[in-house]
Amino acid sequence: MARILIAEDNAEIRALVSSILVEEGHKVSVAQNGQQGLDMLMEDPPDILVLDIMMPQMDGYTVLKELKSSGVKDQMKILILTAKTSESDWVRGYKLGADSYLTKPFDTDELINAIEDLLSSTKEQLRVRREQELDKAQLLSRLESIFDSG
User: Fold this and answer.
1) CA distances from 39 to 52, 81, 133 (A)
2) Dihedral, CA atoms, 37, 17, 137, 85, nearest 10 degrees?
3) Cys-Cys link to 46, which of 3, 81, 97, 132 (CB 3.0-4.6 A)?
4) Do residues 55 and 26 make contact, with C-beta atoms less than 8 angstroms apart?
5) DSSP characters for 64-117?
C-alpha cells in the first residue's frame, strides 16, 4: 500500500483515479488544484504524486519547480497525468523531475501499471529511465517542430 496524492482540477477524473487506486489498496488524498496539492505534500509528502499539468491557481509545471527547489521532490515519485500530448510537454515535465508520464484519456490498466512500476522502481532506475525518456522526447520534439514548420 502506498500513500498517493492526486492533484487534479477535474472532479470526475479526480474521483475516477482515486477510486481505481483505492480499489488497488492505496491510501489516497486529493487536491483540487496545484496550490492545494503543493501545500498538502509539503506538509506530508506522499509516496507518489499523480499530477495534472493544466490546473487553476498553480499549474503542474510550477508545482514541479517548487518541489525541485524545496528538495521535497526527493521524498516521492511523480506521475504526470495530463491531456498535454506534445513531445515538448514531455520534455518539460521530465526536465522538471517527473518520473513517469501518462496521457488522458487513459486506460485503467495503464494507470495501475504506471503506479506499480513507480512503486517497484528505485530512485536510480527512475533517474536512468527519466534521462532515456528525456532524450527520446527531445528528439521527437525536434522532429515535431520540423514537421509543424514544413
Assistant:
1) 15, 19, 29
2) -100
3) 3
4) no
5) HHHHHHHTGGGGSEEEEEES--SHHHHHHHHHTT-SEEEESS--HHHHHHHHHH
pLDDT score of 135: 82
Residue keyed to cell 536512468? 128
Structural contact between residues 17 and 61, judged by C-beta atoms closer than 8 angstroms? no
pLDDT averaged over 10-residue windows placed end to end, the chain, 150 residues: 96 97 98 96 95 93 92 89 81 89 93 96 90 81 72
H or E element: which one contains 4?
strand 3-7
Question: Given the C-alpha cell 495530463, which residue does it identify?
Answer: 82
CA 15 and chain centroid, separation: 17
Residue 63: the pLDDT is 96
Q: Which domains does the chain have, with CATH numbers?
A: 3-149 (3.40.50.2300)
